Amino acid sequence: TVPTQLLTLNGKQFSIEADPNMPVLWVIRDIIGLTGTKYGCGSGLCGACTIHVDGKPMRGCLTSLKQVTNKQVTTIEGVEAQALKDNWAKHNVPQCGYCQAGQIMSAAALLATTPAPTEQQIDQAMSGNICRCGTYPRIKSAIKATAA
Ligand code: FES
What backbone torsions phi and psi does residue 126 show, to the nearest 5 degrees? Predict the structure, then answer.
């Protein structure tokens, strides 16, 4: 039998019947049906699947369901980062858009702990999020525009 596990996602509790070792990215996309979080490489290299676990940016593809039991999981659909999202739109950041939810999640986690990041802190926080279209300069502009 498949065990039932409790998952708190964007402030709501879900009772999930799945293998505890299932990547939480699959749970979020395929079981719960929230598709803002993207599957890129599936092996921790691209950042497209970035979610927050207790506010910390994590790879959804490498984080198992059992690792997030009793923790707060947040996705792009639930993250409170309206100013950042507004600046993302204002600076026309996305090109194809595929990596952008992950980019915003990493940026939001940075700004939550470091409201006025230095150039270096931005580079470091964003270094794990790959954009094949090369939107990096606009990503940085949107982050800087949001910074305190
Ligand atoms: Fe998780 Fe690429 S899909 S890091």
Answer: -95, 0
